Amino acid sequence: WVPLWLTIASEATPPESSGWATGIATAIQSIGGLAGPPLFGFIVKMRQSFDPALLFLLIMNFITIASIGFLKSLNKKEVSSSIYSGE
Questions:
Q1: Which site from 5, 44, 60, 66 is most exposed, i.e. has the minimal number of CB atoms within 10 Å?
Q2: Residue 21 · residue 13 · CB < 8 Å
Q3: What is the tens place of the pLDDT at every residue in 16-70?
Q4: Using CA atoms, how far apart are residues 79 and 17, in angstroms rounded to an integer?
Q5: At what angle do helices 51-85 and 18-47 cross, to 10 degrees?
Q6: What is the pTM of this model?
Q7: What span, in angstroms and rounded, lies between the C-alpha atoms of 26 and 28?
Q8: Which residue ranges make up each domain of the chain?
């Protein structure tokens, strides 16, 4: 998933911001990879069930998908405004 995530992050932003977007995506992925498993285990231990932890993962995935969609919509607006302004 990491190569796909990095590709989407760089394509969803303007070319001059693709390095910044890739860096932020890598930082978020690294933090999630480090904090995710202990957090998942903590939720399972506190709730004595896998269901709340899996629900947490589902919510995080939806947030990720929504943020990618938001980035793509920002990029489309920027591209269309530069077309109309003649840049």
A1: 66
A2: yes
A3: 888 888 888 889 889 989 999 999 999 999 999 999 999 999 999 898 888 777 7
A4: 13
A5: 160
A6: 0.63
A7: 5
A8: 2-85
